[in-house]
Amino acid sequence: MPKVSEAYKEEKIRNLVQAAKKVFIKKGYVQTSMQDIMDEAGISRGAMYRYFNNLEHVFLEVLREDDQKDVAFFEVSNDEQIWPQIQRWLEMQQQVIENINQSLLQAKAEFFLTSQQHKDDFSYVSQRYDEITEAIEEVLMLGEQKKEFQLQQSPERISRYMISFLNGLMLDTFQLGMKQTKVQEQLSILCFTLEKLLYKE
Predict the structure, then answer these.
(1) What is the largest CA-CA distance in the chain?
(2) Cα dihedral sign for 67, 125, 100, 183?
(3) The CATH number of the domain where 191 resides is what?
(4) Which residue range is the domain that position 94 belongs to?
């Protein structure tokens, strides 16, 4: 049997993760099976299990890929203005929330909040929370070093405030709908308060 190159394996895993993401968005976590993902990807059981042990393993890879997009968004160069970058990220979050039924939120909620069998994966929940908050902290500290910001609270407090606000708004919107949660108005208030936290009057 010919040896499979690392590049081929990585490409195959990326394709499987994309197929799995489509299924999780459509069906959530609880209603998804490995067979659903195989059907979406058009591969055999043997090929699927060559790369993933079980549904949990697949979902964690989907999460990792999704999370890296947020982390990468905060990798700014020294000559870039940071506040416009934060505003663009918040606009991206608004798009996600406004298209909440085409997001992974249902699957994430089912995986982390309603299923007792995934307690061992809470270490990853903690890790992913730390990664995104640390990415925001670093960009806030960079803004302070560049004299763009005069932070009124610690970078850690501001980053956790941002994530908690957005997570709460996402969950509320998923449960209640955009009409009730008034997403755009809420995010305008978030931007307003962030400016107060980042700049000295």
Answers:
(1) 68
(2) negative
(3) 1.10.357.10
(4) 6-198
